[in-house]
Structures are given as C-alpha cells and as structure tokens.
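Translate structure to sequence.
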C-alpha cells in the first residue's frame, strides 16, 4: 500500500519551486557561458550574469565597443528579460509553496481529527514499516477501520490513511489514536523494547483491549505475554514456516493462504463466537440449524481454554465462549455471520 501524500498531486507547489530553481540555474549557466565567449574570464562572466539577472547593475564590467559591444548588450538584454522573469517566478512559487504547505498541514490535521473522532471499534497499528504495512493491508481488506501510529511526516498527511504522528510508547499518542474506543491494537515496532512498552501502556489504559504484539526475538515472547499481549507473533518464524510449507506441501500452503487473503477465491475461513443467551447455545450443531441454514463446514471449535476440537460431529453442543471456525464460500460465510447475529 504505497503512501500517497497530500503533496504528491500534479499541482504540487514544491515541484514548481524545483522547476523554477532549475530554470534559474540554467539561465545563470547560459549567461556565464555567453559572457565567457565574449571575452570575460569565468569569474567575471559569472559575476556579470548575476548582477544582470538580479538587475543590480553594480560595478558592471564595461563592454567593448563595436560589434562585440553590440552582442554584449544583446546578451545582457536577453538575460534581463528572461532571467528576471525566471527569478520572479521562482520567488513567487517559493512563497506560494510555504503558504500552501501550511494550509495543507492545517487542513490535513483538521481532516485527521475529524476522521478519528468518528471512529470506534477500530484497530490501532503501532508502526508502519514493512510488517505494519502488510498488517494494515490485510486488516483493511477485511473491512476493519484502522488507525496508524507512526512518526513519519509523509505518512501523517497520506490521503488514504487515518494516522496519528507520534511516539506510540507515549500514553498521549495512544489516547490521540482513540484507544479508549478501539477494539484492538497491534504493536509492529522495529524494536522488542518498544513493543513491550506499548503493550504495557495499552493494557494499563484499557484492560479489555485485544492486543497482538510483534516479537523479533524468541526470548521476548514471554515478556510480551507477561506485559499483557493476547497474542505474540514472530514474523521471522512465521515467514520461515510458510516458506518451508511451500517446499514440502505447496498446494496446501497455497490453498490456506489464498483462502485467508484473496477475495477472488470461492472459499473463505471465518470465525464467530458463541454468545451466552444466544439460540445457538446449549443446542447441538445439527439442532441449531447452522449447517443446514448456512451451508458452511465447521472445521473446529476453539474452547475458552485455548484448545481446539477439530471436525466436531453434528451432535456437538457449543458452549458460551466457544468460537466456531468455518469454511465456506463468501455467500455462505455472509449467511453464517448473519445467522450468528440473529441468534444474539
């Protein structure tokens, strides 16, 4: 997901400044070469070009008379007309860029605050490096609202992201990202120490928050769990395991990966909790009608203690707190989500 900034549109003021500066440098180079060809030494040629373009005229080097003097005056006239125009243009777009930059900053901040104020039940991503970007892309693909915390200035004014510029380890930054209204937080900073600190802060601010933390070292996993992370992920281990699976079971790895992340394919994995008081509670899978009504396959039931019951038989009775993990087409999964919502 490339970051697209407010300053990257076709009318970008700083691009016009660069064009103006390049044109001004070109005028100075051409003028210096022209005066050098008329007989001035390089330093005098450059000096004459500068005072001509700036219309200062101070201590002008007198031209020779005759034909060379005429050419000399013609060169000076062209430099005055062209050089002054370029200099005025460059100065104008420079001040315009300063003013527009401040306006972009102001309106970008207003837009960002307005977007943040509207969000609730969102997911906060701390760190937008390669890992954070991949996480953001996957979460947004599932339709979940995301707020990114990062210190990059260009990211803060990206037009397609809701971001908070700041240090994720500071409570003030977490509050600015709406942690009180968030349902989850992912720490994807480059350092384990930073991820531990963010996890502790987030857990302290909102004890009910679901936190997934990145661990770069195996020794950090226990620390992150002790700090309050619900899940700890080592991207290097997962990447290694995925590469190994492509080597020994490539078709299975492709099926699982594409089912989880590619909407073009006909099967999707999904999960839904069994809630207390719902009609699906205290009834077997067959009696509840979830299989018949939705057509999904119940792959497993995850129990509150973290264990899995794989391929549960139809007479299995889910309990409140269990999570049903299903396989089905997008249409079946949508029917499953609707069916589960109606049971609450």
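Result:
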């Amino acid at each position: 997901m490339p970051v697209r900034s407010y300053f990257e549109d076709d009318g970008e003021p700083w691009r016009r400044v660069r064009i103006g500066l390049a044109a001004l440098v070109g005028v100075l180079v051409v003028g210096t070469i022209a005066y050098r060809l008329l007989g001035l030494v390089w330093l005098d040629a450059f000096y004459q070009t500068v005072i001509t373009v700036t219309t200062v005229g101070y201590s002008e080097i007198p031209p020779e008379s005759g034909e060379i003097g005429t050419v000399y005056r013609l060169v000076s006239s062209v430099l005055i007309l062209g050089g002054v125009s370029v200099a005025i243009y460059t100065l104008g777009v420079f001040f315009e860029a300063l003013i527009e930059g401040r306006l972009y900053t102001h309106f970008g901040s207003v837009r960002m605050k307005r977007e943040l104020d509207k969000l609730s039940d969102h997911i906060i991503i701390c760190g937008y490096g390669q890992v954070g970007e991949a996480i953001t892309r996957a979460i947004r693909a599932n339709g979940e609202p995301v707020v990114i915390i990062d210190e990059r200035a260009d990211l803060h004014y990206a037009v397609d992201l809701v971001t908070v510029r700041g240090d994720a380890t500071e409570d003030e930054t977490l509050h600015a990202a709406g942690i009180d209204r968030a349902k989850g937080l992912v720490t994807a900073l480059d350092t384990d120490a930073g991820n531990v600190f963010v996890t502790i802060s987030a857990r302290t601010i909102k004890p009910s928050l679901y936190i997934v933390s990145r661990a770069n070292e195996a020794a950090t996993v226990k620390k992150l769990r002790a700090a309050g992370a619900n899940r700890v992920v080592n991207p290097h281990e997962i990447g290694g395991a995925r590469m190994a699976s492509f080597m020994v079971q490539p078709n299975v790895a492709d099926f699982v990966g594409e089912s989880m992340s590619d909407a073009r394919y006909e099967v999707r994995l999904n999960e839904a909790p069994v809630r207390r008081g719902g009609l699906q509670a205290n009834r077997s899978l067959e009696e509840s009608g979830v299989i018949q009504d939705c057509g999904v396959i119940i792959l497993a039931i995850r129990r509150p203690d973290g264990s899995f019951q794989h391929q549960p038989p139809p007479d299995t009775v889910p309990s409140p707190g269990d999570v049903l993990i299903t396989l089905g087409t997008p249409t079946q999964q949508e029917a499953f989500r609707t069916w589960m919502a109606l049971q609450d």
